[in-house]
Amino acid sequence: MEKILLVEDDRDIAELERDYLELNGFAVDMEMNGREGLEKALAEDYDLLLLDVMLPDLDGLAICKAVREQKEIPILLVTARKEDIDKIRGLSVGADDYIVKPFSPNELVARVRAHLTRYQRLMAAAAYVPKAELIHGSLRLLPDERRVFLAGQEVHLPNREFELLEFFLTHPAQVFSKEELFEALWGAEAVGDISTVVVHVKRLREKIETAEECHIKTVWGTGYRLNNLNE
Question: Do 148 and 139 contact (CB within 8 A), yes or no?
Fold first, then answer.
């Protein structure tokens, strides 16, 4: 559940905003004072800040600027002023959006949800670490591009065969039974015949193996493993 800090000195407005946000699945903390709101914003982990511009002690612009120096979470400013200069000031200190009073609670919820979704996507993209290519003899598998090359020529594999090859390449020293491969690739709850593993291994071999290189080895009575090409 996403956690929001709402800083608003008008109790009626604050309670209305809080109630609508909570009804839509958000957890909301509420502060009526600017300085106390800033302290809470810096001390705790919030997913989004909703700040009124006109606040006692410390206005929303100052809070926004101070928080932005330490955190990258979405910040939405709320104001009764409609002049563009006020919006520009808010955006210049790091606000992500500006909501002008009066607004409908549904608009508020929609804006909050949109900025949280955008932020989560950005964080996921920033945290993503590209997977290194996997090489076995003349065989190259590019995980992120989901492409396979054999001796420089691209080999087109259906999804399941690609996943099977990637699984072998990422577990080079292990022997897997048909049951273990079925559970790993089809899922523990999957309904099906484990003989499908044999079929997929056969099809994969037909596409990636040559007279010079055997990439998948059958371990009789046990299952399969990635072949050691140096043997």
Answer: yes
Peptide bond between residue 130 and the one before it cis (omega within 30 degrees of 0): no
Comparing CA positions, the residue from 112, 124, 121 lying closest to residue 5 is: 112
Residues in the chain: 231
CATH fold of the domain at 134-226: Arc Repressor Mutant, subunit A (1.10.10)
Question: In whole angstroms, what separates CA 189 from the centre of its chain?
Answer: 25
> Locate tokens 């989560």: which residue?
120
Residue 207: CB atoms within 10 A of its CB come to 14
Q: What is the dihedral of CA 156, 158, 163, 168, to 10 degrees?
A: -60
pTM of the model: 0.62
CATH number assigned to the domain covering 3-127: 3.40.50.2300
Summarize pLDDT for 56-114 with one digit per residue, the tens: 889 999 999 999 999 989 999 998 876 667 677 777 888 888 888 888 889 999 999 99
Report whether 82 contacts 100 (CB < 8 A). Answer: yes
Coil/strand/helix, residue 76: strand
